[in-house]
Write a structure and sequence with these properties.
The protein is α/β, with parallel strands linked by helices. It folds into 2 domains: 5-110, D-Maltodextrin-Binding Protein, domain 2, CATH 3.40.190.10; 132-180, Periplasmic binding protein-like II (D-Maltodextrin-Binding Protein, domain 2, 3-Layer(aba) Sandwich), CATH 3.40.190. It has helices at residues 10-21, 49-65, 82-87, 102-105, 147-159, 171-180; strands spanning 5-6, 26-31, 33-34, 38-40, 46-47, 72-77, 93-95, 109-110, 139-143, 164-168. Strands 6-2-7 form a 3-stranded parallel beta sheet. The protein has a 3-stranded antiparallel beta sheet with strand order 3-4-5. 28% of the residues are buried.
C-alpha cells in the first residue's frame, strides 16, 4: 500500500498549518524518478499521480489557513533521504511511491493509501527468468532503502540463492542496469 508521507505527528501538522497561516512556504518532497507517481519531466517540472495529490493537499491547506498566496516549494528527495527529510522538518510532506509499513509509521505518518501494489521482477524481454529462484547465483539490482530490496535480501538469505544483490540510487538507474545487461 502506498500513501503520501505526511508530517511526523498531529502536533507537527498544526505547526505546518500555523507556519503557512503566518505566510510560510509549504515544502513538498518529491522524487526524481518514481514514475508514474513522482518524477521530473524532460522540461524539469514535477509530474506524477502523487505530485497531483500533493498539489491538491496544498490547495486544501490554502483553504484551511486562508493563505491564498501560499508559496509551494518542491524539494527533490531520494529513496534514502525521503523519510529523514520529513522527520527533520525539511519538508512538510512527501509525494512519491513510499510503502506504508509499521517500521516507517514509527517515524512518520501516512495519508490513506492511494495505490495498492506489490513488487515484481523486471527483466529484459529476452530473459528466461520467471521467478526469483531463477536468479540463483546471478546479479539482481533493487533501489536502495526500498521494501522490495529488503524482501529480496530476506529471500536470498532464507532460500540460500547466493544472489549478488546490488543497490541502485533510484528506480531509473536500476532499470538502466537491467537494460545494459549488468544485472539480470
Amino acid at each position: 500500500m502506498l500513501g503520501l508521507v505526511a508530517v511526523q505527528s498531529a502536533v507537527q501538522a498544526q505547526g505546518v498549518l500555523g507556519k503557512v497561516a503566518a505566510g510560510g512556504t509549504l515544502v513538498i518532497a518529491q522524487r526524481e524518478s518514481s514514475v508514474p507517481f513522482s518524477y521530473v519531466s524532460s522540461d524539469k517540472k514535477p509530474q506524477g499521480y502523487a505530485v497531483d495529490l500533493c498539489l491538491k493537499i496544498a490547495d486544501a491547506v490554502r483553504r484551511k489557513t486562508g493563505a491564498k498566496n501560499m508559496p509551494v516549494e518542491m524539494l527533490l528527495v531520494t529513496t534514502v533521504t525521503r523519510i529523514p527529510t520529513i522527520e527533520q522538518g525539511k519538508a512538510d510532506l512527501e509525494c512519491g511511491s513510499t510503502t506504508n509499513n509499521a517500521e516507517r509509521r514509527k517515524k512518520v505518518a501516512f495519508t490513506i493509501p492511494h495505490f495498492i501494489t506489490g513488487a515484481r521482477l523486471l527483466v529484459r524481454a529476452d530473459s528466461k527468468i520467471e521467478r526469483l529462484e531463477n536468479l540463483e547465483g546471478k546479479n539482481l539490482v533493487s533501489t536502495k532503502e526500498t521494501t522490495p530490496l529488503k524482501v529480496a535480501q530476506q529471500a536470498n538469505r532464507e532460500r540460500l540463492l547466493h544472489m549478488n544483490i546490488l543497490e541502485a540510487p533510484d528506480h531509473a538507474k536500476a532499470v538502466e542496469m537491467v537494460e545494459k545487461g549488468g544485472v539480470e
